[in-house]
Specification:
CATH class of the largest domain: Alpha Beta
Structural class: alpha+beta
Number of strands: 9
Order of helices and strands: HEHEEEEHEEEE
């Protein structure tokens, strides 16, 4: 039983470390001025923002038009993408079919529409702890890597 306890403790520490490494909270005072300026220009009515560092970029998490939203910016203020939470039913039909065929008995926990700066749209479906990415037509692209 002691071995199980040690293994469990190591697993908990590893999960906590991994979560911290993937996205770290950043105080608004540490967010570069160009990032804040682009954010305010793009989302002028948003007042509550949670900032995180993700893969060297600044991610703003907030609610806009009653939807959970995030936007990712480079340190010089260039917006890379935005992600808006959507209802599962709003996903393209091929996404729903893919999940049904490839994740039998599993349901979509969360769904999102991702819009890249150039206008490219992707969809994300969280299934069985994995973020599955699809193109604008619902064609599977890949399992997202943290």
């Amino acid at each position: 039983m002691k071995t199980f306890g040690k293994t469990l403790a190591v697993a908990i520490v590893a999960v906590a470390f991994n979560a911290a490494a993937n996205a770290q909270s950043v105080p608004a005072s540490k967010v570069p001025a160009p990032v804040k300026a682009t954010f305010m220009k793009t989302y002028p009515t948003v007042t509550k923002v949670k900032w995180e560092m993700e893969k060297g970029n600044y991610e703003a998490g907030f609610v806009s038009q009653k939807q959970e939203t995030s936007a990712v910016f480079t340190a010089d203020g260039k917006m890379l993408e935005s992600e808006v939470e959507i209802k599962t039913a709003a996903l393209p039909a091929p996404v729903l079919a893919y999940v049904k065929d490839n994740y039998k008995g599993k349901s979509i926990k969360e769904a999102a529409k991702i819009t890249k700066t150039g206008g490219e749209v992707n969809y994300e479906a969280e299934v069985a702890g994995k973020d599955l990415l699809f193109d604008s037509t619902g064609k599977f692209i890949e399992v997202a890597k943290d």
